[in-house]
Amino acid sequence: MFALVLAACGGGGKSSSPTTPKQAAGPSCEAVADSMVNQMLADKDPRPPDDKVDVIRNIISSRCDADGWTLPAKQCLSTMKNAQDADRCASMLTEQQQAALVQAEREKFGTRDEAKEAAPAPAAESPPPVAAPPPPPAAPKSTRSKAKRNPASTSSDPCQGGE
Predict the structure, then answer these.
(1) How many CB atoms lie within 10 A of CB 15?
(2) DSSP helix/strand/coil, 21
(3) Closest among 85, 77, 70 to 30, alpha carbons compared
(4) pTM of the entire predicted model
(5) What is the pLDDT of residues 44-99, one digit of tens each?
(6) 125, burial (CB in 10 Å: exposed 0-12, middle 13-18, buried 19+)
(7) Signed CA dihedral, 112, 34, 86, 27: sign only
(8) How far apart are CA 142 and CA 157, in angstroms?
(9) Spatial distance between the Cα atoms of 33 and 152, rounded to a whole number of angstroms
(10) Helix, strand or coil, per DSSP, at residue 150
(11) CB burial of residue 75 (10 Å; 0-12, 13-18, 19+)
(12) Are 104 and 59 in contact (CB under 8 A)?
């Protein structure tokens, strides 16, 4: 694109050295970042907040620009449709490019373990109901013989057969 701007402004006159045709610019790093973010979020429910999504998009775009991702990698990443495509496209980035992207994400968001430690603990489920204690043992049967009660007696005195 820079060469097009120079040509439109009258710059970039002919030089004595032979020029090689420039490769097509291909998708922009912004388009690559949009595609990658859309693929990452395809099955996320709930979707992360927009401000976090924008940060991820900006990290990808800036690493793409700074690390000079190749045209084939950018074309692949900008058109990926599923996880298999993403794996294939990621293999087109060098180890250094992949490491730089991961490092930039870690600097911004921390590692997954750090994120788990910083996240509030999930609400504890209520414990299962505790079983009721067993009923107390039955009182032992009395070995005393019950005195026969005199039905005519109205006294409540146990000695007289009352209770």
Answers:
(1) 7
(2) coil
(3) 77
(4) 0.55
(5) 888 889 999 999 999 999 999 999 999 999 999 999 998 899 899 999 999 999 99
(6) exposed
(7) negative
(8) 19
(9) 104
(10) coil
(11) middle
(12) yes
Are 34 and 81 a contacting pair, CB within 8 Å?
no
pLDDT at residue 67, as a whole number:
97
Which residue type sits at 31? A
Distance, in Å, from the CA atom of 105 to the CA atom of 116, rounded to the nearest integer, reads: 15
How big is the CA angle at 31 (ends 29 and 32), to the nearest 5 degrees? 60
CA distance 130 to 150: 50
pLDDT per residue as tens digits for the range 105-157: 999 988 765 544 444 444 445 555 566 667 777 766 666 655 555 555 566 66
CB 133 within 8 A of CB 125: no
Runs of H (alpha helix) within 68-144: 71-79, 83-90, 95-109, 112-118
Cβ–Cβ < 8 Å for 102, 62? no
- DSSP for 39-65? HHHTT-SSPPPHHHHHHHHHHHHHHHH
